Amino acid sequence: MASHIVGYPRMGPKRELKFALESFWDKKSSAEDLKKVAADLRSSIWKQMSGAGIKYIPSNTFSYYDQVLDTTSMLGAVPPRYNWTGGEIGYDTYFSMARGNASVPAMEMTKWFDTNYHFIVPELGPDVKFSYASHKAVDEFKEAKALGVDTVPVLIGPVSYLLLSKPAKGVEKTFSLLSLLPKIIPIYKEVISELKAAGASWIQFDEPTLVLDLDSQQLQAFTAAYADLESTLSGLNVLIETYFADLTPEAYKTLIGLKGVTAYGLDLVRGTQTTDLVKKDFPKGKYLFAGVVDGRNIWANDLASSLSTLQALEAVVGKDKLVVSTSCSLLHTAVDLVNETKLDDEIKSWLAFAAQKVVEVNALAKALAGQKDEAFFSSNAAAQASRKSSPRVTNAAVQKAADALKGSDHRRATNVSARLDAQQKKLNLPILPTTTIGSFPQTVELRRVRREFKANKISEDDYIKAIKEEIKKVVNLQEELDIDVLVHGEPERNDMVEYFGEQLSGFAFTVNGWVQSYGSRCVKPPIIYGDVSRPKAMTVFWSSTAQSMTKRPMKGMLTGPVTILNWSFVRNDQPRFETCYQIALAIKDEVEDLEKAGINVIQIDEAALREGLPLRKSEHAFYLKWAVHSFRITNCGVKDTTQIHTHMCYSNFNDIIHSIIDMDADVITIENSRSDEKLLSVFREGVKYGAGIGPGVYDIHSPRIPSTEEIADRINKMLAVLETNILWVNPDCGLKTRKYEEVKPALNNMVAAAKQLRTKLASAK
User: Fold this and answer.
1) Residue 340 belongs to what domain range?
2) Which is catalytic among the residues 4, 332, 488, 701?
């Protein structure tokens, strides 16, 4: 019985790629140094999977930024502003598209389906001249082959690539991206031909958009694309991989009808109803790559349950046509549990990271083939039973409090217009008030202080003194820049979710459980294993300290319940909304303690609210109801004069704007500039927004410093669709990933632009 892995984490067990990328970007190392680190990581991954007995090992899933940008490079679809003149795309062009450069901004970045991973959105139009401009897929296949590992090269499928793209600036929004299929298929044919010539026997096309709500024209595009590729694919085994949700009956019918396709990869973890489609109708002689090992969470697989599922499928598909696989790429989970030295043995026994999931896949394949490892299965069953019965998982008082929430919608008693009036009397802010989103640059010295405190190398008094000095520096800088509503810069926090999770019950933490978010950016999601509560105040001391340093309003900075949920590895033994309500109650306690401490502006970030939106429209309403309700729970008890902010970033918000309004926040700051001001279109189309709103005026994920004129132009575009008295001026997101030499001039230009427009508006009266 065969086994398969959809994809594998790229960063390395100790984030080796992250540090190599940042060293290269900072010009501290060469391109050759970066290539060597990448090659060593790839070699290690391939040999690990080969050694574990995996038959179908992926190649071309490694990336310096993301796999969609790799495909853009393969197709030569470089926007003209990067002045690419043809030939093989090099690092300069590649990273300029991803990060921008001194003269031009980066391409838009957005979430990869409903994950916390991001991709660079292709910008396409009728005039794009496609050409085969990156041979990465072929090069990496040959590289693995030279190491003695036969791999399955993976490409983003042509239809999903186009459906994930957007019309370039200046192209009509109604332009049919699928009309470009005939232009990109010839490039795919070149790649396929080269892979065949290099000795590939299998090829994997990732077509994850098949799980979305697609119309008949979009489904027909899949049929047309693979019919066109059929003759080129002849002689290859072709796997079409889908993941993250169920297929609709129509999409499933399209999938199994594709020409020249040998195998179908299905997510049987999140695609809970897909098994029924397989049992009703599976084409004879085809392979099923059954994704029964969860690629998006860190819980050990219930091997007995998965084996039962596989045995039922084997009866339908045939013994020699069933392949055990992961539900999706393991990119979305941590790398290796072996590196976790501080997790206690009980919790550790409940977990499986990427390396352990590879072993699980192979163990299931061997069990199906009659070579069941009884000791491994027995140990797994014991861990499953331990988790179900452990007293540390349940807290009756928390469950009772969460159950009691269901009788109210938890709205503040006064409408937002009246609240804003009361808040303005107290805060006395100018029109177009300026603020930032929360974090300031995390310097090497600051990271050293936190690291040494955690390692007990410095005392708590020394730690507090160092953090207070950093806060004072950030406060002084903001006053010097003349920012209106200040932040303390979050110097005590390495990560916005991890920081809160460390102080809440029901959470566990890893030492090296890093997961890539985009480029070199990694996050370390906490593990929610049990009921959640707040034993004591979490941020009040630092917020009060910062407020004592200034007469200007100081924001209390919290992460909202939906974001904590969506950016954690969440327990899978109860519905997600129940866990979210528990977190909401904990944050509510913190909000009310901040208010009592004299903090008049409190920001509750819900950066990941849109990210958690189910992929199928039929499931949207239920998710948005409990997610928005969870946010309202956190602040339903505060006074009218306490201003509640929230922040969202790097997703498409236009389709949930009414739910955002229903959150009933006083002010929302929201990513806007990197997505080419897409957000503003919803207001042009007539949506009325009465609360305060700060669409971001510059992209903080690029080192580029925007000019005062550029920012003023952005604000003017906002003023064309939003009332002057509700508009705030702020960056797209927090500043932690930037350097002070970038932050100071950018914020200086932002404040100058706001003042320039205040003067202009005053003279126009």
Assistant:
1) 1-54+269-390
2) 701
